[in-house]
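Late entry, adenosine-5'-triphosphate complex.
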Amino acid sequence: MIQVDGLKKRFGAVQALQDVSFSAGDGKITGLLGHNGAGKSTTLRILSTVIRANEGRALIDGHDCSTDPLAVRRSLGVLPHASGLYAHLSGRENIRYYGELHGLRGAELNRSIDRLVERLALGAVAERRAKGYSQGERLKVGLARALIHRPQTIILDEPTNGLDVNAVRMLRELIRELRDSGRCVLFSSHVMQEVAALCDDIVIISHGRVVVRGTPAEILKATGAPDLEEAFVRAADQGEVA
Ligand SMILES: Nc1ncnc2c1ncn2[C@@H]1O[C@H](COP(=O)(O)OP(=O)(O)OP(=O)(O)O)[C@@H](O)[C@H]1O
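Prediction complete; structure with ligand written out below:
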């Protein structure tokens, strides 16, 4: 579970987050939606303990991102914006390295790697160096790496960017599987259709503020829009006015 309350973040002259509050529950897929520059990646980087907020509080499964980052990292699997794979290591070695960082060893680690290589249909790709991977291959190995320690909460930063339709389908299936096993999944996107196709809850962020949040039905009601795309446009405009 993710609980975010009053996050503010400034980079020099840029106030990237002005006021971000929302929660994302277990057994749910939550979409963080916003235009380019709205503050999605900044929010996810604070949750991933890569950067610290100037104000406000973020909790992952009850652990505070700023005071207890190690506990947060144990609970959390992250697929960052750029895959961050080590180019000179094979897919399997990349996954193994992260498993070891999480304290997995021996037969348990080997079983976990085999399970993910099979689930993600990585096949021979797992044995190749990451250098030269296609977008889809990078995504799969990145996902395996994020899931190696069976995290309760999973964060994906714009995971479908640049993927073909088969890779998007595979990703959606996996995200639903994670939700159905009781995990909390938060993913960001700037495409409303994508969020609408998958999410139980939606948080719309504009100019560093949460402008609307709720189920798709609640968002339609709150914005008075006929469909979710129009709801997104209206909500984002509202943020611009604010
Ligand atoms: N390290 C940084 N230094 C300066 N400004 C930054 C930094 N990181 C983010 N920003 C600024 O903060 C604002 C929010 O950026 P952020 O990357 O969170 O947006 P986003 O919603 O993820 O956008 P996109 O969809 O384009 O990835 C932008 O104006 C961005 O230029």
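Residues 165-180 form the longest helix (16 residues). Will revisit in the morning.
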